[in-house]
Design a protein that fits this description.
about 140 residues; alpha+beta; HIT family, subunit A; 3 helices; 5 strands; about 35% helix
């Protein structure tokens, strides 16, 4: 059975897409810890990140680097935190969370509820930075 992330990758479920490459897709988390919280998901459906073939694993982290740099340029934060959990969805994924303090990367905190237009604005801002990085 396909994961919800596979359905997003296929376009069966909409998302606030930030960027995409041959190996991965990045989109906003709909239950974010902070504005700009992004998920980077390999297109290959595997439950555990370290089960990805080496080439896909390296491509995923290279893509994640581009997305994180774009987030730093477009979302007010001191850093972009990284977490790999994978308990809620059985499809490997990386959380990129804009941080102001260390405590911001606490998944026990209440999640934000942002209006669709706010999510669209954030996604467009990050996507623009990714596109500019790719062009340079």
């Amino acid at each position: 059975m396909s994961s919800i992330f596979t359905k997003i990758i296929r376009g069966d479920i909409p998302c606030y897409k930030v960027a995409e490459c041959d190996h991965a897709i990045a989109f906003l988390d709909i239950r974010p810890l902070s504005k700009g919280h992004t998920l980077v998901v390999p297109k290959m459906e595997v439950d555990r990140l370290f089960d990805l073939p080496e080439e896909d694993f390296q491509a995923l982290w290279s893509f994640t680097h581009k997305v994180a740099k774009a987030m730093e340029a477009s979302v007010p934060c001191n850093r972009v935190g990284v977490a790999v959990l994978g308990f809620e969805v059985p499809h490997a994924h990386i959380h990129l969370v804009p941080l102001r303090t260390e405590g911001d990367l606490n998944f026990a905190h209440p999640k934000l509820q942002l209006a669709p237009e706010v999510m669209e604005e954030i996604a467009a801002s990050i996507a623009q930075e990714v596109a500019e990085d790719i062009l340079h």
